[in-house]
Amino acid sequence: MAEAYIVDAVRSPVGRRGGSLSGIHPADLGAHSLRALVDRVDIDPGLIDDVILGTIDAIGGQAGNVARTALLVAGFPEHVPGVTIDRQCGSSQQAVHFAAQAVMSGTTDLVIAGGMQSMSQVPLTSSALVGEAFGFTTPYAESPGWQARYGDQEISQFVGAELIAEKWDITREEMEQFALESHRRAALAQDEGRFARQIAPQNGLDHDEGVRRDTTLERMAGLQPLRPGGRITAAVSSQISDASSAVLVASERAVKEHGLVPRARVHHLSVRGDDPVLMLTAPIPATRHALERTRLTVADIDLFEINEAFASVVLAWMRELDVPYEKVNVNGGAIALGHPIGATGTRLMTTLLAELERTGGRYGLQTMCEGGGVANVTIIERL
C-alpha cells in the first residue's frame, strides 16, 4: 500500500474564551494556520489537492463550508477545493485520516488536514439550541428509534464523564491531582520553549492562554461540581477555547517531485465506537483495536496523546490499558491548554510530532473521545 507522509504541522496559539483570539472570524482563524503551513513548507498552495477542516456547530461564522472560506481567506487559488467535516471532538483528527486515506489510495498527492473553532463566538451546542428555538427536534430525546434502543436517558458529555468516574471509582481528588499535573506539565513545556516551533503567533498572542500557573488543589476543592452531588468540576474538565491547526499530508510522489522532507509517516488509522450513553469511553476499545491491528504493544509506543476532555476519561483509559502516565500528555493536555473542538485533533498531532522529535521517540499514538461514543486512533512514526 502507498504511504502517507506528514510533511509539517502548525497551529495557532490556543486562546481562552473571551481572550486574545475571541474576536477573530472563524474563517480568518482557520486561514492563519493554512497560510502558516504553506509558508513553512515553502510550497505553492495551488498544488494542494484538497483542504479538509474540522469544526462543529457549523452556524454563524462557522457555517457555509468554512473550510472553503478559510482557504480563500488564506489566499489560496480559487481552484483549490475545501470541505468541512464534523466528527465532534475528533473532527480534525478524522480530517487527517481522510487526507491520509486519499493519499494512500493514489487519488491525491497533497492534502491539508486541520480544523478551527471559535468557541467564544459560537458556544458549544449552539446548533442544537438554535434548532430547538425554531421548533426542530433534538439530537436524541425526541427520536422514537433512539428511545426504543437506549431509553429516556439524559445524553451529554457531562453525564458521561460522571458515569465514567463512578464506573471506574475515580475520586474527585484523583482527578484534581491529574488536573494539577496537566497545568504543571504545560507550564514547564512553555518555560522550556517546547511549543515554540509548533505555534504561529496570531493577533499578538504567542502562547496558549489557558495554563493556570497559580492553581492549587485547595482552589480546585472549593469549586462546585457541574452536577449536584457529582465529582466533575470545571477544574477537571477541558477549557473552552479558540484556535486553529493544520497538517500537510503528502504522497511519496509529491515528496520526491517537490523536494519535501517528511517529518513522520502515518503508520495506522482507525476509528471505533462504544456505548453512546457513557459516550467518552471509546478510546479504550479503539486503542486496543489499533494495537491489535498493528501488532504493537503499549511498550512499543513512545508517547501517547489522549485528549483531556475530562480527567476521568484519561484516568479510566490509562487503567484499562495499563499505560504509564510518564508517556501520556507529557506537555499537559486540554485541561491546561484548552480544547478548541474542531482544531484539537491536529493540535494534538502537532504537539505529538514535535515531542517525538524532541525526545527521539519512534512511535506516537493519538486518540480522543468524541460525541456519540466514538474514538479515532492515529499512530505516527517519526522519520
TrEMBL record:
Top-level taxon of origin: Bacteria
Protein known as: Acetyl-CoA C-acetyltransferase
EC code(s) of this entry: 2.3.1.9
Domain Thiolase C-terminal: 262-382
Thiolase N-terminal domain: residues covered: 5-252
Sequence similarity: Belongs to the thiolase-like superfamily. Thiolase family.
Keywords: Acyltransferase, Transferase
Any Pfam family hit: Thiolase_C
Gene Ontology molecular function terms on file: acetyl-CoA C-acetyltransferase activity
Acyltransferase among keywords: yes
InterPro entries: Thiolase, Thiolase-like, Thiolase_C, Thiolase_CS, Thiolase_N
Top class in the EC scheme: transferase
Keyword Transferase: yes
